[in-house]
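Researcher: We're teaching a course module on how sequence relates to structure. For the next exercise, students receive a sequence and then see the predicted structure as tokens, so they can try to spot secondary structure elements on their own. Here is the exercise chain.
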Amino acid sequence: MIQTEDFGKFETAWCPGCGNFSILAALKKALAACDLPPHQLLLTSGIGQAAKTPHYLKCNAFNGLHGRSLPPAIGAKLANHELTVIAESGDGCMYGEGGNHFLAAIRRNLDITILVHDNQIYGLTKGQASPTSIGEMVTKAQPHGVLSAPFNPLAVALTLGAGFVARGFAGEKEHLADTIGRAVRYRGTALVDILQPCVSFNHVNTFAWYKERCYQLESDGSGRTFSEAMDLALEFGDRIPIGILYQKEKPIFEERQPALARGPLVKQQFDARAFEEVVDGFAV
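Model: And here is the predicted structure for the students to work with:
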């Protein structure tokens, strides 16, 4: 039986009171509830405070470039689709620099989990607005407030046909752990956008601000229509729904790849001659 202690305990570099602590604790609890051994987990990330999460978890890890948490996650899953793969990073990394990778991952529907620490700010680089920052936020880089419309990851994921779309809140740790666990167990690409207050640079979207607005959805999303889920995705203001907005079974990318029919690529015999023939074919 896997315990949260199996994933280790490490000294962190996060600010005291940061929402990332609750997310890390919820993630450990979810992985233990899934009875997932650390050696069967790969956690990938990009750059940022959220992207430091693999440093604080005992598992296989890949800490990549800014906005590039998903490419190694996709590559690893295709090479060994028996591995549980989680791509985890912040809103700036995943939706800004990595926005195009995010769109492609949703469209492919590999069996991976995407966890986004959404603090609506660039915390590592000292507080400029991120893709999800709301208009009333004033920063040193945006002294007149944010002028761009905020990116809505849940609505975008639904529009692209995502089969599992959810939102969590770092201030509701038990609920978040359950949501992450359901996402990991879901067969397909599962997105969990996690509201994560940044106590140092975001003084608008605080724990108290979210506590006043967040409410838990009662169902697991499986009986909800696309239109109903989209209405929930667009609800962000006086009330903010947290939980699984939408859940639907879909064929996964791995099932449609003939090369994976014989098992994971890492377990297949490499044919050097066949590889050379393919390469030579491009030279003609």
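Model: If you want an answer key for the exercise: The chain has nine helices and eight strands. The two ends are 56 Å apart (CA to CA).
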